[in-house]
Write a structure and sequence with these properties.
236 residues; alpha+beta; Rossmann fold; 3-stranded antiparallel sheet; two-stranded parallel ribbon; 6 helices; 5 strands; 11% strand; Oxidoreductase; NAD(P)-bd_dom_sf; Gfo/Idh/MocA_oxidoreduct; oxidoreductase activity
């Protein structure tokens, strides 16, 4: 199988932590051939070469004038993937029924990486919502056997009206619900680039469609709008 030659635009924190380690972990699929940096993003979307395969994480989409214009371009195929495999597994197996509302948050006590987040004015793509809200990173190499493995003490509590997993849940006599610490599935960020290689070589379809990626960004935009206006806002 021919190697896919990779050119990387920009060599900052995102590239070094969220992309390059996973590309290098698949030497039988990818070969990094070039880096391009210290150049302004193209002002005209039409300057993108047609037929070029690329991936972009969310901060890049803001450079395309608007994310709507970016995802509306029929000549650009984009995948943005920030998944919670355990939650996906539970939903796909109907453990949670018809999900109406979800609350996801970080329980941290002013960690060191937040100390420099002191900008007073917002610019598109800045802030925690466009940062760790979209992705959780691990300091291990993706080839390390511990990569993506969460300590059992951090397992989430699964509460259901019927017993979904008898290995982790027990009937709570007070609530009449089945409650237990459900094991967190191993994360698999490497799967993003495995799927990308397969899709480029026409072996499978891309895992996340561009429209789904755009919806993720729109959710963040609406969240900021809701906060600024002090009210719930409809999806639009």
């Amino acid at each position: 199988m021919n190697l896919i030659k990779v050119g990387i635009i920009g060599y900052g924190f995102s590239t070094k932590c969220f992309h390059l380690p996973f590309i290098l972990a698949l030497p039988d699929r990818f070969k990094v051939t070039a880096f391009f940096q210290r150049s302004e993003a193209p002002g005209d979307p039409r300057s993108a070469k047609r037929g070029t395969h690329c991936t972009v994480d969310h901060p890049e989409a803001k450079h395309y004038r608007t994310a709507d214009e970016f995802f509306a371009d029929p000549d650009v195929q984009v995948v943005i993937d920030s998944d919670f495999l355990t939650l996906q597994h539970l939903i796909q197996n109907d453990a949670l029924g018809d999900v109406k509302e979800v609350e996801i948050h970080y329980d941290v006590d002013f960690p060191f990486w937040m100390r420099n987040m002191n900008k007073k004015f917002y610019t598109p793509g800045d802030g925690m919502m466009f940062g760790l809200e979209q992705q959780i990173f691990d300091s291990l190499s993706p080839q390390d056997p511990r990569f993506g493995v969460e300590p059992t003490g951090l397992n989430g509590t699964l509460t259901t009206s019927y017993c979904f997993d008898d290995g982790s849940q027990n009937l709570d006599s007070a609530s009449k619900k089945y409650v237990g610490r459900y094991p967190t599935l191993r994360g698999h960020w490497l799967g993003f680039y495995e799927n990308l290689a397969d899709a480029i070589q026409k072996e499978t379809k891309i895992a996340v469609e561009p429209g789904q990626s755009r919806d993720g960004i729109r959710t963040i935009e609406l969240g900021r709008m809701s906060h600024a206006q002090g009210r719930g806002v409809p999806w639009a």
